[in-house]
């Protein structure tokens, strides 16, 4: 199976050394000075590869003697190289494989034990398009990445195919693949009797007619498990299909929705596939332009034309943040966090595309933002509705996405429904509201989703506290002295007074939050009032104390969030 899209003598080639460098793999050239590949073929242990010049054979599952046999068979078939997975912790190709490579004249690529086979193909395509040494990373929007996201969300085994039934990308546990998918991935044609059956059932006609998810029942007699399929199309032209096969577990309940979103995201990549363009460059451009729309760095009308959106369209904005785990289990440094965000952005994009045709997702400020444009008429109607009526469906959608992110990334995630921008040019201002809302949400990690309007009071108080921090001349001196006294003497007059005021004078509730006896709290409140001269019967005195004492609650280096979790 030609996974690189080559197949002729003029196809662009990939230097094996460049592929090895990209994968961190060991390489043995088998006597040649260098080796180029233009095709990737997958084989199983004991299976002889087809005779394809300049092919890289992925010897899936071949270890020890089976790997040596794979190299020997590759030499007889006249292919260029064989990739084998190294044992865990190994960094060099075993001696037995070196000997076989020299004897067969075949190069051997030693793939690190933790590297997925899909990544070998993805890196080969990247180098093929960009040339050796191309610094661009493999984009998260690559078809293999999209297939992996669909597999993660659906709990199934996924393949993305073109109209010729060629597998362009696949993902999911290989040991759960049925015979039909196994044959497709290994490069064989789907059995014609089964194709004829699919045509007889009208599966392809229905799948390609307009976004319908079609169920294909299991056929145990043919080694075929239950499947769902959806067509990928653009402008009325069918481009391919996405298949999800049921594995050892039932498919997730929202698999149909996932497939609808994935089909929309796959369409531009398949257009590039048919016109032999560079899908990675196209995706990079779309990502950059979406970021420009989010941050206001480019003319919104021009961006709207590029995305096929009316400039006057309203657009809802939802902000997401992946938090640090409370158990301190984060690891991997900056690169690991970026990879985790990229995975989360892909999941959000699939959910967003399932609901809105022109949905856009971009990362900014370490957070992820979904922009959900609406037709101009619909947008105008929404803005006339009651605020809660506008927010409610978005909160439900964000809650569903956060649940999926927490489940699949094993990471605390929070979201803020920032609101609806009246026009695309207003998106940056709404984005800023989402950013600020996520800062407030950080103090209540157990809370998954909130609408910005529900956080408005907290945001206002935060701004007031920042104003006090910047202008000492408008602070109440007696309250400042109380905070200093607490810091120097280890007392809790200020904190006790603040808890009392926050509880609306409910002594029992405030004492509970401080884990002290109610009489102790009463004494502390009387003492704080005496030390400061505050009249707690005066509402303005109470308001001043509630705002200013928040400023003294944290050391200055932490005052960016004056609302720590209790």
Q: Treating each run of at least 4 consecutive H or I residues as one helix, how many helices?
A: 21
Strands ordered across the widest β-sheet: 2-7-6-5-4
Q: What is the end-to-end distance?
A: 59 Å
Largest sheet: 5 strands, mixed
Structural category is: alpha+beta
User: Helicity level, as a percent range?
Assistant: 40-55%
State the shape. elongated
Q: Which percent band covers the strand fraction?
A: 15-25%
Q: Radius of gyration, rounded?
A: 30 Å
Count of β-strands: 17
Mean pLDDT: 77
Which runs of at least 5 residues are low in confidence (pLDDT < 50)?
A: 1-10, 129-141, 379-384, 554-566
How would you summarize this macromolecular structure in one to three sentences?
This is Helix-turn-helix domain-containing protein. The protein contains 21 helices and 17 strands.
């Amino acid at each position: 199976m030609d996974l690189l899209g080559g197949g002729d003598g003029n196809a662009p080639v990939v230097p094996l050394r460049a592929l090895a460098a990209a994968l961190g793999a060991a390489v043995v050239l088998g006597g040649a000075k260098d080796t180029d590949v233009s095709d990737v073929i997958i084989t199983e242990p004991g299976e002889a590869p087809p005779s394809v010049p300049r092919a890289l054979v992925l010897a899936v599952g071949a270890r020890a003697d089976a790997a040596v046999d794979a190299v020997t068979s590759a030499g007889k078939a006249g292919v260029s190289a064989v990739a084998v997975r190294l044992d865990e912790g190994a960094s060099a190709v075993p001696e037995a494989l070196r000997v076989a490579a020299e004897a067969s004249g075949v190069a051997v690529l030693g793939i690190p034990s933790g590297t997925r086979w899909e990544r070998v193909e993805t890196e080969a395509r990247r180098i093929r398009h960009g040339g050796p040494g191309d610094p661009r990373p493999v984009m998260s929007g690559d078809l293999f990445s999209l297939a992996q996201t669909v597999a993660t969300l659906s709990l199934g085994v996924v393949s993305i195919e073109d109209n010729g039934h060629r597998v362009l990308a696949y993902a999911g546990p290989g040991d759960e693949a049925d015979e039909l998918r196994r044959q497709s991935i290994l490069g064989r044609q789907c059995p014609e009797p089964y194709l004829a059956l699919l045509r007889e059932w009208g599966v392809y006609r229905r799948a390609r007619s307009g976004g319908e998810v079609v169920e294909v029942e299991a056929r145990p007699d043919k080694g075929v498990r239950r499947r769902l399929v959806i067509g990928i199309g653009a402008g009325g032209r069918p481009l391919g299909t996405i298949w999800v096969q049921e594995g050892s577990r039932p498919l997730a309940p929202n698999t149909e929705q996932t497939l609808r979103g994935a089909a929309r995201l796959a369409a531009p990549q398949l257009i590039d596939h048919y016109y032999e363009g560079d899908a990675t460059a196209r995706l990079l451009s779309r990502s950059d332009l979406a970021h420009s729309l989010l941050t206001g760095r480019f003319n919104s009308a021009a961006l709207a034309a590029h995305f096929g959106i009316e400039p006057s369209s309203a657009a809802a904005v939802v902000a997401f943040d992946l938090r640090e785990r409370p158990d301190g289990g984060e690891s991997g440094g900056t690169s690991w966090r970026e990879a985790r965000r990229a995975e989360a952005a892909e999941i959000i994009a699939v959910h967003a595309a399932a609901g809105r045709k022109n949905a856009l997702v971009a990362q900014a400020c370490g957070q992820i933002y979904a922009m959900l444009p609406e037709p101009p008429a619909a947008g105008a109607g929404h803005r006339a509705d009651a605020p809660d009526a506008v927010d409610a469906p978005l909160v439900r959608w964000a809650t569903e996405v956060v649940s999926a992110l927490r489940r699949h990334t094993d990471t605390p995630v929070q979201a803020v429904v920032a609101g609806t921008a009246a026009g695309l040019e207003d998106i940056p201002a709404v984005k800023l509201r989402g950013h600020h809302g996520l800062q407030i949400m950080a103090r209540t990690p157990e809370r998954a989703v909130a609408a910005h309007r529900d956080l408005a009071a907290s945001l206002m108080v935060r701004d007031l506290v920042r104003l006090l921090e910047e202008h000492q001349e408008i602070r109440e001196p007696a309250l400042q002295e109380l905070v200093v006294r607490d810091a120097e003497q280890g007392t809790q007059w200020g904190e006790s007074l603040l808890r009392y005021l926050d509880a609306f004078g409910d002594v029992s509730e405030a004492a509970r939050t401080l884990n002290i006896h109610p009489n102790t709290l009463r004494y502390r409140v009387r003492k704080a009032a005496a030390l400061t001269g505050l009249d707690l019967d005066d509402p303005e005195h109470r308001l001043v104390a509630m705002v200013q004492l928040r400023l003294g609650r944290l050391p200055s280096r932490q005052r960016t969030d004056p609302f720590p979790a209790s």
